[in-house]
Amino acid sequence: MKKHGGLISADDLNSYRPVWREPVKFNFDDYAIYSMPPPSSGGICVGQILSILEPFELARFTSASPEYIHLFSEAARLAFADRAEHLGDPDYFDVPAGLLDSAYLAKRRDRIKPGMASSSQETHAGSPLGPESDQTTHYSVADAEGNIVAVTYTLNSAYGSMLVVDGAGFLLNNEMDDFSIKPGVPNLYGLIGGEANKIEPGKRMLSSMSPTIVLQKDQPVLVLGSPGGSRIITVVAQAILNHLRFGMGAEELVRHSRFHHQWLPDLIYMEMGAYGIDTKQDLIRYGHNIKEGEPYSDLQLITFSSNGFMIPASDPRGGGTPGGF
Ligand code: DON
């Protein structure tokens, strides 16, 4: 090192320690496959490629056929897009937990079209499940005995105050932002308030959380909720209307495009590209202001049908998967 002007010192070498890591495990048909975990991308990328290709009937083709080469290349393109974004030394970077999750990979697989190459320009890393949401979280749960819960909990903005209580392992929130600090001064979500929500000793701040259960003649119809600050309210209200008025089922409810109005600012916020040009022109003609932007919120719900079926659905915007079918 010294001779060639290298940067590594004897101390660096002395302090280097090998680390034992659990191998990556995935299944392919009825095989259990173990491979190298991060900091190699190998095990995860091999696992993604194999899992993405598993349902294709590859044996119909030969190993040198264009059909097989196409499918494999598309799977590899997807795996490498994830590699670039999501993989690194786990001692320094939070590698998402869900990179080999079958529901996540099913969504990635859906992008593959037989006989048509996709473009790497338009292929980006996916949104696998992380270890845990960094923001307000909602879950909806129901069991066979008829118990139902809708829970939303919040630290307010991501990681709250960004302070962990020493030795206790939890973060302090920044919920004070949900008070109105002065009439006319917006909070993080652009919400305006006054006297009713001013800061007072012992008082609780005004939330927008909307964990909700819908019953018809005492029978459950829908349980739902979402994060999203002020937008929680319109997400939940639109989902209820989409179910009760527009007849949408669970999966459609969580996927459906969203718009939001909260009085001030005086505009309709729409998810980018979600609404047609005619709709937007009509709204502008009616006198609305329109702003388009990022998709938002993370709706979690269960619908109940009269014959006793419960159908859970989890918002694709949050990358979740419903549990317990
Ligand atoms: O209680 C409220 O209304 C806010 N603290 C919620 C914040 C929130 O949903 C942020 N997540 N996206």
The radius of gyration computed from the alpha-carbon positions, rounded to a whole number of angstroms, is: 24 Å
Bound molecules: 6-diazenyl-5-OXO-L-norleucine
In which range does the helix fraction lie? 10-25%
What is the first-to-last residue Cα distance? 59 Å
Main sheet: strands, sense, barrel: 4 strands, antiparallel
State the helix count: 7
Parts with pLDDT < 50 across at least 5 consecutive residues: none
Beta-strand fraction estimate? 15-25%
List how many beta strands DSSP finds. 11
How would you sum up this structure in a few lines?
With 325 residues, the chain is α+β, with helices and mostly antiparallel strands.
Explain how this protein is built:
With 325 residues, this protein is of the alpha+beta class. Helices cover 24% and strands 17% of the residues. It contains seven helices and eleven strands. The protein has helices spanning 10-15, 42-53, 66-86, 102-109, 231-244, 250-255, 277-286, and strands spanning 24-28, 31-35, 137-142, 148-153, 212-216, 219-225, 259-260, 268-271, 290-293, 300-304, 310-314. The strands form four sheets. Strands 5-6-10-11 form a four-stranded antiparallel sheet. A three-stranded mixed sheet has the order 7-8-9. A hairpin with a 7-residue loop joins strand 7 (259-260) and strand 8 (268-271). Helix 2 (42-53) crosses helix 3 (66-86) and helix 2 packs across helix 4 (102-109). The longest helix has 21 residues, at 66-86. The mean pLDDT is 89. Bound molecules: 6-diazenyl-5-OXO-L-norleucine (DON).
